[in-house]
Design goal:
Blueprint (H helix, E strand, L loop, with lengths): L6 H8 L20 H8 L3 E4 L2 H8 L4 E5 L4 H4 L6 E5 L10 H11 L2
Parallel strand pairs: 1-2, 2-3
Length: about 110
């Protein structure tokens, strides 16, 4: 769940996934009010930045890959068991690589 403006970034991440038949990209299609229900019914993995969707996914115990920039993941979570936090040493979210995201996804889904 993200705004339509985020679609190119999500598409770039998904381009690294060989089999996307099991992925539904709802970027720009749904709103926050549908988020808890969608996650509970459909999500097996959530990739997002430090935002409300991260905490909703964590709360309903869905594995997450959390992308952090300048905020401190030790203070702001996620706090569930099945999660990976990605934070570049520069603390710039732009410096998190696609390879890092894919590796984290594979690690959290084991």
């Amino acid at each position: 769940v993200a705004s339509g403006e985020d679609r190119p970034f999500v598409d770039a991440i998904l381009s690294g996934v060989a089999d996307r038949s099991h992925i539904t990209n709802l970027t720009g299609v749904t709103g926050f009010e549908q988020l808890p229900g969608l996650m509970a019914l459909c999500a097996r993995l959530v990739i997002c930045c430090d935002s409300a969707p991260l905490h909703v996914a964590s709360f309903v115990n869905i594995p997450t890959v959390a992308l952090f920039g300048p905020t401190d993941p030790a203070l702001y979570g996620p706090y569930a068991d099945k999660h990976r936090v990605l934070r570049a040493s520069s603390r710039r979210m732009e410096d998190i690589t696609l390879e890092d995201v894919i590796t984290a996804c594979c690690g959290v889904c084991v």
